[in-house]
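Task: complex structure prediction.
Instruction: return structure tokens for all chains below.
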Amino acid sequence: MGHNKEYKDLIDQEKDILPAVSIDCVIFGFHENQLKVLLVKFGNTDIYSLSGGFVLNEESLDEAATRILNHRTGISNTYLEQFYVFGDPKRVDPEIHRTVMKKNGVDLPPTHFLFKRFISVGYYALVDFTQINPTSSIAQEESGWFDIYELPANIAFDHLHIIQKALESLRLLLDHKLAVFNLMPETFTMGELQSLYETILNKKLLRANFQRKMLSLGILERLEKKWGGGAHKAPYLYRFDQSKAIPAHKPDYWE
Amino acid sequence: MGHNKEYKDLIDQEKDILPAVSIDCVIFGFHENQLKVLLVKFGNTDIYSLSGGFVLNEESLDEAATRILNHRTGISNTYLEQFYVFGDPKRVDPEIHRTVMKKNGVDLPPTHFLFKRFISVGYYALVDFTQINPTSSIAQEESGWFDIYELPANIAFDHLHIIQKALESLRLLLDHKLAVFNLMPETFTMGELQSLYETILNKKLLRANFQRKMLSLGILERLEKKWGGGAHKAPYLYRFDQSKAIPAHKPDYWE
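Output:
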């Protein structure tokens, strides 16, 4: 079996990268009551992982995350945000690296840098999965969307834990991330927004309470009524008031 | 000038630590309307920094943060939480390391690992500063509390930025961190809690709104009235209902 050039390049880059640091991207996809996550299937295996990679010597972490996501999934122009660093000394099973490389014609010496300890910086994003059709730059790899409640069994390393932590962060900060991740269309109804919340939180919410809480955040602007059947039934349309959303997200520290 | 043994030990540990990764601890201190932060003054200089250090090969990040905080300030048994990773390639000015070491009798070669790139994992905590009297294990160092709005001018590296980001995170998540950081006494009045919020957010809050919002979080348990002057003026006492605080902080992911 010949070398897979893309995998060979990946494991030949030790001198160009920051040692001990990797990045993993958790891309959540939402559309009409479905919440998915983007996974990559390693070439010639049934092993899935997040879109991950290393940090080049001259890159910031944010730049690396953007480059890695693009390389492994073809996605560009998506806002990524750091949410946690994973640093358990035993978080990565080196056997998985060995298996993946072997299946792609690359035999790694035991001293290879892939077997050293890495901490991984987790980045996440929330996108509309119908707008994004992922493709890996690595020929043998496939990437695709998986329902968050029906993930494949064979997820490598600590990546299931990373997905769980990302979902926990997203749920905890959903009020603040709504405008940041720019997920809703330009205008939307309160019902559409409630559907997003219910899908991400995985529970039904009371309509009146939800509306009261959302309006109290002060980030929604109410527009004209949506055209519909009977006038009394037409729902209001809303949009995010970015001027109010941003100060809530980034407070003035020293005021 | 002879070597300062503690600094010498610090810079001789390259083989024992994870390369490229450091940790910085932002310890906020609160007491009666004052918000402070704990800084360390490097030996024989007027340069201040956060309590920082490196990660030993076999340590988790959380373990390293606890050990480092103890080494540089004497603090133990304080719950630290990771809040952000700082990864700008130019975040550290190597001249500062050179100066500090020189002032302590250690001459560093240009190839020394201290001059390589490090990303830094930020940890934070919120404590009562009257309960903690910090002392560094490094003989020439001093550590002490500084009012957050009157910090010394000469703070090293990107540590002012790290403090700002920590304060931003604390403000954003204050509702969730109240019980986690276990800052309030066992029982407290709504006025005492409001004072904590006002000090951390650095603004006055409307009493009625604040009370309504706090009660809506569902994490406070109302106890008997505090003994005071006229019965109609005595405020209620509250305490955190930990059983409710924890699920809100750590949601069930896959329910």
